[in-house]
Design brief:
Layout: H1 2-8, E1 25-29, H2 33-36, H3 38-50, E2 54-58, E3 71-73, H4 80-93, H5 99-105, E4 106-107, H6 109-116, H7 121-128, H8 132-143, E5 148-152, H9 154-157, H10 162-175, E6 186-188, H11 195-200, E7 207-208, E8 212-213, H12 217-227, H13 240-249, E9 254-258, H14 262-265, H15 269-277, E10 281-286, E11 298-301, E12 310-313, E13 318-322, H16 335-345, H17 355-365, E14 382-383, E15 407-408, E16 427-432, H18 448-453, E17 458-461, H19 463-468, E18 476-480, E19 485-492, E20 500-504, E21 517-520, E22 527-528, E23 532-537
Parallel strand pairs: 1-2, 1-5, 2-3, 4-15, 5-6, 9-10, 10-11, 16-20, 17-19
Antiparallel strand pairs: 7-8, 12-13, 13-14, 16-23, 18-19, 18-23, 21-22
Helix pairs in contact: 4-7, 4-8, 4-10, 7-8, 13-15
């Protein structure tokens, strides 16, 4: 599995967006693709309509993508490992797996076989609520495909078992030989436009660019020599979810936030706000005065994508040029320029002529970007890894073999979500987005047309649950969890299923994250945004 870690750990698609059109079967789970990735979803819909591809949607809501699906499986929240293991149980029991791929390209099959043995469809029905016959049918459909494409998003990752969920999907793809082929792969869909690039450029606490571990002495020495410094730490830094509690306890005195709005996007917002309020210094760098920026001691205005030169690396690992189209307003500056100026005032002469000069350094220090330069991506982007200038890039990962040779199966058991319902909090809450708004609404909620289409927060609930709790469509209700309380308008919807409500997280005035649970995945430190217990009252 270490061979897959560079792709899955960084959230990168193993295949290209164009490959999607060639899939025979899609397994889309934890992704509201039509609303969160509408352009990419059109590839799926076209493949289903014109190429007779089959679509399996596994989601706790009856999202719009289900209208195009051959099968819709509705699992209870936080039970993904159980149903994925059950698919593999059926595939192994029915002898439908790719024996050649398993024998020649993987390790750990016997351990996997042993762990999934107990995940019979009947047993898993009792955990997930998915009918056993549907599990069997979905397993046969995916295993029977020549090219099976798995698509997932934050509905898979934002759990205390998010890492286990991703590894389980990788297990399933390897079991059926769906890696290293066109139209196949395990394809996480990034939640924002340059998240992939931010991670590639070491926007993580434990790596240099290109996922080079800071604990590796050779990598450390290479960077020290390039930057003319000594004594750089070989210890990983802190994740965001570790920094905020340390601010509360006084261990961290200052935080510098760039392009993030945690006072809307962090879980358990009441606690997060209390943590940030205890800082001696809060610095925010952003394109608008966000809820977090309003709390800051210092705000640096930065330019948006259309006001600067540089590169973005998109969800399919394609490194692309962006070019300045308009002049920035007021005193807004390039992010890299602000960083350099701060470094200079702190005693290190960080000087670059422009964004291209920075990219040359990136290519020099980053093996996966080694062959990418501005002239090569003048007209069309290149997929990393691209180790040298004679390399064409790598649209599809893992063709022929994995970077470490054989890929390792992981034998993973099911662990329930961190929080369960009870008599006081009888409903599960899951959160997400709507098509008209983006993330915390920093940009989209300043747009009149989008606000007209989606003006306020809502709590989506099934008609049965609305009747059971005496809630009328369109009325304002209180939603409370063990951490906080908000008000939102009731939206009785066919998308909702009994026992689970949905609230979008775009709206600061009714922030869904005042309710969500800050329990973390022990590996990735991602909070469990997608499962918590709530009550809804008139």
């Amino acid at each position: 599995m270490a061979g897959l870690a560079a792709a899955f750990g960084s959230g990168a698609m193993t295949n290209t967006i164009g490959d999607i059109a060639e899939a025979d079967v899609f397994l889309a789970t934890g992704t509201n693709t039509t609303e969160n990735h509408p352009v990419l979803s059109s590839f799926v819909k076209r493949a289903v309509k014109f190429n007779n591809a089959k679509l399996i949607v596994v989601d706790p809501r009856r999202i719009k993508l289900t209208e195009h699906a051959e099968m819709f499986l509705r699992p209870n929240l936080g039970t993904d490992v159980a149903w994925i293991n059950s698919l593999m149980h059926v595939i192994i029991k029915e002898d439908l797996y790719d024996k050649k791929f398993v024998d020649t390209r993987t390790n750990g099959f016997e351990e996997l076989k042993k762990i999934v043995e107990k995940f019979t469809p009947d047993f898993v029905e009792s955990i997930t609520g998915i009918l056993s016959e549907d599990i069997i049918a979905a397993a046969k459909m995916y295993a029977g495909a020549e090219k099976g494409c798995i698509l997932y998003c934050m509905g898979i990752t934002q759990h205390t078992t998010g890492t286990d969920n991703v590894k389980s999907l990788a297990n399933l793809a390897m079991l059926c030989g769906n890696l290293g082929i066109r139209g196949g792969g395990v394809n996480p869909l990034r939640g924002q436009n340059n998240v992939q690039g931010a991670c590639d450029m070491s926007g993580l606490p434990n790596v240099f660019t290109g996922y080079q571990p800071v604990t590796n002495k050779d990598f450390l020495k290479k960077h020290e020599e390039k930057w003319g410094v000594t004594g750089m730490s070989d210890q990983p830094g802190l994740t965001v979810t570790a920094m905020v509690p340390k601010a509360h306890d006084g261990e961290i005195k200052a935080i510098y936030i760039i392009g993030e709005n945690p006072l809307v996007s962090d879980p358990d917002l009441n606690h997060a706000e209390e943590c940030l309020s205890r800082l001696d210094l809060l610095v925010v760098q952003d394109i608008f005065l966000t809820e977090t920026a309003k709390m800051a001691d210092v705000v640096f205005p930065s330019v948006c994508f259309a006001e600067k030169d540089g590169t973005f690396s998109n969800t399919e690992r394609r490194v692309q040029r962006i070019r300045k189209a308009v002049e920035p307003p007021g005193e807004a500056k390039d992010d890299w320029w602000i960083t350099c100026e701060i470094a200079k005032r702190m005693g290190y002469d960080m000087t670059y002529e422009n964004a291209e000069e920075i990219f040359k350094e990136i290519s020099e220090l980053t093996p996966s970007y080694g062959g990418i330069n501005y002239p090569r991506i003048e007209h069309e982007g290149i997929h990393w890894p691209c180790p040298d200038e004679n390399h064409p890039g790598t649209p599809i990962l893992h063709i022929g073999q994995f970077p470490i040779g054989k890929g390792n199966f992981h034998a993973i058991d099911y662990i329930p979500p961190a929080e369960k319902t009870d008599d006081e909090y009888p409903l599960y809450l899951t959160t997400g987005r709507v098509i008209y708004h983006y993330h915390t609404g920093t940009m989209t909620r300043k747009t009149a047309g989008l606000n007209e289409r989606s003006p306020e927060s809502f709590v989506e609930i099934s008609s049965d649950d609305a009747a059971a709790y005496n809630l009328e469509d369109g009325t304002i209700v209180n939603i409370a969890s063990r951490r906080g309380r908000i008000k939102a308008r009731v939206a009785v919807s066919e998308k909702a299923v009994n026992g689970t409500v949905f609230i979008p997280f775009h709206f600061a005035e009714a922030a869904a994250n005042k309710l969500t649970n800050a329990a973390l995945d022990p590996v990735s430190s991602i909070p469990e945004y997608k499962v918590c217990a709530v009550k809804v009252e008139s």
